[in-house]
Design brief:
single chain, ABC transporter transmembrane region fold, four-stranded antiparallel β-sheet, about 65% helix, binds adenosine-5'-triphosphate, ATP binding, transport
């Protein structure tokens, strides 16, 4: 079996089990791409936030320096019993002004960050949805892919936090630069002492972040299971079955076991982290007080003034907390940068269905029809053939019914016809040319498929019908005609808000429909497009006998001249088709008209008699 694109190890893949500092630094290379994304989200806000932060980063040094001047001035005045003159008041006013300015800058930065964060989160969510839309059906059916998409999706909030973290990181580093320059003028050794005090704490943080990351990542599949049980246990869609089968005890037990396992795993790590964190923080305080002692001794010796003492002690204290912040934040920034790998990797996943370089236009009308040439198909990760050795032609205008037991491969066949998958072996031709040569968008526009597991959109009736051809969502005439054709118009007339009625129970004023009513609504989608091929996969299973009869009468009239494939277990429906294709274990065992197959006395005749007997 060939390896799928997303199973291969991408170049920038970082293995989760052991994350070294090198890995973390390597992950930082995702940041330029990330910042580009931020820039694309909103240029002006990005620029504004950067400028304000630059300004803000110079303020601590300025305040400390003005503070030193004030204290020196006060000491001078008190030693010389001199008159307080304007200079002191000016300094105090300056410091006051700086404090107010700094506060205003902070608020402006928080404001811009939160707005930019919202926009950024919307921007990336839209990008994820847009990319997911380009991928193939079987990629969604693969759990490896699904986990990756989940991680890319769930990290939306994480990425928004990362945004302000990266910005703050840059700002704090510039502030440290300013403070270090000030400190270096008086005593460069203090800076060295500072680093020695802070680095153990950084290494500790870094180690524990690695463990947390590895743990969280390793838990992704189980977390999905946990989310699923949470949904099963408390959702309108599951409530009915959970109640009648009395499943809540089972669901709660499973949830409890899983969530308890997470709790215990996490608790161990959190406790170790807290203990080591306390120890490292003590080392930091030791460093600070050592420096403090050095400065005090030098002040007593008269080598620095009292003002300088406060300046140095203040600078040192601020630098320590900034440096600790920067180093701690480094681990979360690199953490975020590693999660970004998941995000960017998701965008590296390419659809497997290859588009033709020079796509052909869909033929109008179809000349010779769709021809299956020894087509076989295996689902991803499956060793079994779902379809094999399929050879037949669906002629233009022909109505073909597919018959076969559960799992015989009927739905798979129509998915191949609609090019939701490409055959594993053999070819499907349209008018003698491989289906792969045709423009995929045109192919989709010219084929209408209603699957047995169609979606019940929690939207209005009109929107539910318009889903069949969303470009016509405002074409009320078309929507109403489609509803008439599928018999959904009676329902529309009955609903209080008619076509604007919200369906389903999820949103306010929603009305729940019966199974058959939903099916009529879904069927209306088929009539929204003037397609050349229509596929109905068990479209009438939930309809009552009269409705089914009428639906098919109309279907035959409305699709006159068009090709159609019907899947049904009801022979009253099946017999209306021009030809019937009988599948068994993915292979064709019979093909012919109702009369021909009855005469043949094979599987079709046997199944037909079986059903007919039930009605006698
Ligand atoms: N997404 C999938 N991934 C893997 N295997 C699948 C998938 N869908 C179907 N199969 C398998 O392929 C085989 C054919 O399934 P298919 O849905 O085509 O049958 P069907 O004839 O439409 O059945 P039914 O009458 O029950 O709808 C089955 O054995 C099924 O287990």
């Amino acid at each position: 079996m060939s390896k799928s694109r997303y199973e291969q190890k991408p170049k920038n893949r970082i293995q989760a089990s052991s994350l070294t500092l090198k890995d973390r630094l390597a992950a930082l290379k995702n940041l330029p791409e990330f910042l580009k994304l931020v820039w694309q989200t909103n240029k002006w806000m990005t620029l504004g936030s950067s400028l304000l932060r630059l300004l803000r980063s110079a303020i601590p040094l300025a305040i400390l320096y003005v503070g030193k001047l004030i204290i020196d001035q006060v000491v001078f005045l008190s030693n010389h019993s001199a008159e307080v003159h304007n200079y002191l008041w000016e300094l105090i006013a300056l410091e006051f002004g700086l404090a107010i300015f700094s506060d205003a800058l902070n608020r402006a930065i928080i404001l811009i960050d939160s707005l930019l964060g919202d926009l950024f989160s919307n921007h990336t969510s839209i990008k994820i949805m847009a990319h997911a839309a380009t991928l193939d059906l079987d990629q969604f059916e693969d759990s490896v892919f699904y986990d990756k998409m989940e991680r890319a999706r769930q990290q939306t909030i994480g990425r928004t936090i990362l945004l302000s973290q990266v910005m703050s990181q840059i700002q704090d580093m510039i502030t440290i630069g300013f403070l270090a320059a000030g400190l270096a003028v008086f005593n460069p050794w203090l800076i060295l002492l500072l680093f020695v005090a802070v680095i153990p704490s950084f290494l500790g943080e870094s180690y524990f972040n690695d463990r947390t990351y590895a743990l969280t990542r390793g838990q992704t599949p189980e977390r999905r299971e946990l989310d699923y049980f949470r949904y099963l246990g408390a959702s309108d869609e599951t409530a009915k079955e959970v109640k009648t089968f009395n499943l809540s005890g089972f669901i709660i037990d499973r949830f409890r076991t899983l969530s308890n396992k997470f709790y215990l795993d996490n608790r161990k790590l959190v406790i170790r982290r807290a203990s080591w964190g306390t120890f490292f923080s003590m080392l930091g305080s030791l460093g600070y007080y050592s420096a403090y002692v050095v400065i005090i001794i030098r002040t007593i010796q008269g080598k620095v003034t009292i003002g300088e003492l406060t300046f140095l002690a203040g600078s040192f204290r601020q630098m320590r907390s900034l440096l600790e912040g920067v180093l701690t934040r480094f681990t979360s920034v690199s953490q975020g940068a590693i999660y970004l790998s998941d995000f960017f990797e998701f965008f590296e996943i390419k659809p497997k269905i290859k588009l033709s370089a020079k796509p052909l236009s869909f033929p109008k009308p179809i000349q010779t029809g769709f021809t299956f040439e020894d087509v076989g198909f295996k689902y991803l990760h499956s060793e079994r053939w779902a379809n094999r050795h399929l050879s037949f032609t669906l002629k233009p205008g022909e109505k073909l019914a597919l018959v076969g037991e559960n799992g015989a491969g009927k739905t798979t066949l129509v998915k191949l016809l609609a090019r939701l998958y490409d055959p594993t072996e053999g070819r499907i031709l349209l008018d003698g040319i491989d289906l792969k040569e045709y423009d995929l968008t045109e192919l989709r526009e010219n084929t209408g498929v209603i699957f047995q597991d169609y979606l019940r959109y929690q939207m209005t009736l009109a929107q539910n019908i318009a889903a069949g051809n969303i470009s016509e969502k405002d074409n009320r005439n078309l929507i109403e005609t489609s509803a008439e054709q599928s018999l959904a118009d009676v329902l529309a007339n009955r609903l209080p808000e008619h076509y604007d009625q919200m369906l389903g129970k999820r949103f306010t004023n929603g009305v729940e429909l019966s199974g058959g009513e939903w099916q009529k609504v879904a069927l209306a989608r088929a009539y929204m497009k003037d397609t050349q091929l229509l596929i109905l996969d068990e479209p009438t299973a939930a309809l009552d006998a009269r409705a089914e009869y009428e639906v098919f009468q109309r279907f035959a009239e409305l699709t006159h001249g068009k090709s159609a494939v019907l899947i049904s277990h009801r022979f009253s429906t099946v017999r209306m088709a021009d030809r019937i294709l009988v599948l068994d274990k993915g292979e064709i065992i019979e093909l012919g008209s109702h009369e021909e197959l009855l005469q043949k006395g094979g599987r079709y005749a046997e199944l037909f008699d079986l059903q007919a007997m039930g009605y006698r």
